[in-house]
Automatic annotation (TrEMBL):
UniProt xrefs under InterPro entries: Class_I_gatase-like, DJ-1/PfpI, Homeodomain-like_sf, HTH_AraC, INH-QAR
Annotated HTH araC/xylS-type domain residues: 232-330
Keyword Transcription: yes
UniProt cross-references to SMART domains, sorted A to Z: HTH_ARAC
UniProt name for this protein: GlxA family transcriptional regulator
Keywords associated with the record: Transcription, Transcription regulation
Any Pfam family: HTH_18
Amino acid sequence: MAGAADAVRATRTPASPHRVALVAFPGIRSFDVAVITEVWGTDRTDRGAPAFDLRRVAADGTTSVPMRGGLALHPDRTLDWLDTADLVVVPGLDDHLTPAPAPVLAALRRAHARGTTVAALCGGAFTLAQAGLLDGRRAITHWRLLDLLRTHHPRVTVVPDALFVEDDNLWTAAGTAAGIDLCLHLVRLAHGAEAAATIARSMVTAPFRTGTQAQFIEHPTRHTDRDADALAGVREHALRHLDEPLTVADLAAHAGMSPRSFARHFTAATGTTPLRWLLDQRIAAAQKLLERTDLPMPEVARRAGFGSEVTMRQHFAARLATSPRAYRAAFTGGSSPIPR
């Protein structure tokens, strides 16, 4: 994970915008194109977000790329622009077995070989697999396409249940909303939690869903609808009291459930366990404090609910493959690198 974060965080001057290539060819999904454009193609520098240089890249830089619904994408760069990109993003496909043009596959292979971060949304995993980039590597796609990916690309290690995964600086995401999660996560890696939160607020979407959450969550039935408000109230309560030593038993009591029943309902509703969710929120809180303030490490740890700097450091190492001090240095203009 550290290597992936390093690769996203490309070396450039502070004023130089992050260069993002949207790879276009006939058959790409308009929804994914819209997501990529909304995240990296909208100027939010007046709200403190970083500057991006998003380019629509195609084999022929002058011919419009048709999409479903009568839409068309007008490229503004050829595939040569991938040589200068910091990040390459491949949209999903309307027909998941659509063959990508050979020049596109070759350009993706060259970009990855140079160390450029390459990401695919939903069925875009099939494009990376066509390029041979996922052979022997872990990947995810929409839950309904998992067997199709296994059948047509047996050398890919298909992850059965996740929102997004990374292997050797190749990122793949599950369907639709998970593509938004991955895009925001890539912003978070390159520019910090506050930048990702700024974009998420603008998009009116959740700023922090980890890739390990389940992508498919059963909708509550009528007899469990009554639990939804209780669980939402518990999450709100936990976020207000992150600095306290909360346990699953504490959260269950707040919801009026037994710990076992609470854990089961929480996982069914959110796709993750109460402990993992709570840890994710503590890490996100610590990241924001490290970016926004100059509070000493023990105080950051206390406010985020880790109890001690040692505990916070251990969780940062396990989840982010870095230390709190290195994280602060990387996202506040310091010179200390994120360790590999």
